[in-house]
Amino acid sequence: MAGLDPAVHVLDRDDDPQSERQDDPQRLSPAGGARIAGIDLSRPLSSELKDPIWRAFLAHHVVVFPEQSLTREQQFAFAANFGEVEVHGEHRPESKRHGVAHVMSNLDADGNPTVRFSRAANYHWHTDKPYNQKPPMLTTLYAVEIPARGGDTEFANTALAYAALPPETKKRIAGLRVAFSPAFDPSRGSVDQPLVRTHPDTGRKALYLGNHSTHIRDMPEADGVALLGDLVEHATQRQFVYAHRWRVGDLVMWDNRCLLHRAVLDADSGKYRRVMHRSIVRGTVPF
């Protein structure tokens, strides 16, 4: 784990816990993350398995299922156990197959790895699709091809970050609303969401912000941008972060309602292929 802050826990590719049982979560870090081995997600999910997975999801926010072998249809079917799976690109005309996980990669038009330097790139801290009226509840990401080095994904626990704020800051930000718009298409307009979001299942409060946030309503733009920047810096401190080091066959599901995440940009990011499949489950209106 050279080069990483020791406060960020990474599950190394050579780790092989011996004490795991099926559906028995292994906690990965104080900031979040649990590993559940011994479950074949290509099969229909029984209630006996779904219930402990859901409990682990709410308790740890990130759940890692190693050694999976999934088609895109099977991944979609697994995600559908937890709600309505969004159609990728539903806001624009597309001819892609629906009912399957969609492909995310670092490949250019010729199939070569590259780094996309843009505001919309996934190496910025963000939560998925906060510019929707009903942002996603959860995301599943499945590792098809991973780099020989690097390619980690970091998750920042914004519930822990909110809890650690000084009382005067909590009072200052209570009731504020953030404008979100797609970084890839600002012309779509913006959607207001609460800066402090209450989790509908746990009741915990968390910061809701990230790369798609543009400003705070009813606040001078410069002041709002500065406040959002300060809060992101606070929320992504090392003690609030779990970093996942991918293995081929990992399926990771995470809670968009109380996490920020990003792909880690490093010196090897443009050297190796990184191909992932993603399914997103629709959520509810934040409050």
Oligomeric state of shown chains: single chain
**Total strands:** 16
Shape: globular
The CATH homologous superfamily is called: Clavaminate synthase-like
Succession of helices and strands: EEEHEHEEEHHEEEEEHEEEE
Q: Tell me the β content.
A: 15-25%
Give the end-to-end Cα distance, rounded to a whole number of Å: 39 Å
Mean pLDDT: 89
What would you say this structure looks like, in words?
Helices cover 17% and strands 24% of the residues. The protein has 287 residues and is α+β, with helices and mostly antiparallel strands. The strands form four sheets. A seven-stranded mixed β-sheet has the order 2-3-4-14-6-16-5, with helices on one face. A four-stranded mixed β-sheet has the order 1-13-7-15. The chain has one domain (9-282): Clavaminate synthase-like (Double-stranded beta-helix). The chain is globular and about 50 Å long. It is built from five helices and 16 strands.
Summarize the structure.
The chain is an alpha+beta fold.
Set down the secondary structure blueprint.
Layout: E1 9-10, E2 26-27, E3 34-35, H1 47-60, E4 62-65, H2 72-79, E5 102-105, E6 136-145, E7 153-157, H3 158-163, H4 167-173, E8 177-180, E9 191-194, E10 196-198, E11 205-207, E12 213-216, H5 221-235, E13 241-244, E14 251-255, E15 259-263, E16 275-282
Parallel strand pairs: 1-13, 3-4
Antiparallel strand pairs: 2-3, 4-14, 5-16, 6-14, 6-16, 7-13, 7-15, 8-9, 8-12, 10-11
